[in-house]
Design brief:
Helix content is about 75%, strand content about 0%. It contains 3 helices and no strands. It has helices spanning about 5-25, 30-35, 40-59. The longest helix is centred in the N-terminal third of the chain and has 21 residues, at about 5-25.
Length: about 60
């Protein structure tokens, strides 16, 4: 823990970091997102958004 950072804020930061890492790992379960087959950025982001919607609907 860094000096001067309250323990409660540190715990909140760790919880948010863990949540973000789990979300990225779930997105990477989709092969198209993990390997980035798309050559254009907007196609990749559209694919990632579609994968996020599928994950959202499953939960």
């Amino acid at each position: 823990m860094e000096p001067g950072v309250p323990a409660a804020e540190h715990q909140t930061f760790l919880k948010l970091t863990c949540k973000a890492k789990r979300a990225i790992n779930r997105l990477e379960q989709f092969r198209v997102v993990a390997t980035r087959y798309a050559k254009r950025g907007y196609v990749f982001f559209g694919t990632a958004a579609a994968a996020a919607v599928v994950i959202w609907l499953r939960t």
